[in-house]
Amino acid sequence: MLIIDSKDCENIDKALKKYKKKFEKSKTLLRLRERQNFTKPSVTRREEVLKAIYKQNIASGKIEK
């Protein structure tokens, strides 16, 4: 549960902005989306490996963005 401490003189827009920022940093929405569909650990690992290979190819200059 996210708790936002707001001062009496602070307006609601600032408090809402703080809440949105805190919510984004907590990554609650990302975790909810991940839980909607189950992906096998082997598939997740394969995606990580392919992403690492892609980044390595960009760094070495084989692929241009």
TrEMBL record:
This is Small ribosomal subunit protein bS21. Keywords: Ribonucleoprotein, Ribosomal protein. The keyword Aminoacyl-tRNA synthetase does not apply. It comes from Arachidicoccus soli. GO terms for biological process: translation. One of its GO terms (molecular function) is structural constituent of ribosome. Pfam families: Ribosomal_S21 (PF01165). InterPro entries: Ribosomal_bS21, Ribosomal_bS21_sf. HAMAP family: Ribosomal_bS21 (MF_00358). Belongs to the bacterial ribosomal protein bS21 family. The keyword Transport does not apply. One of its GO terms (cellular component) is ribosome. Gene3D superfamilies: Ribosomal protein S8.
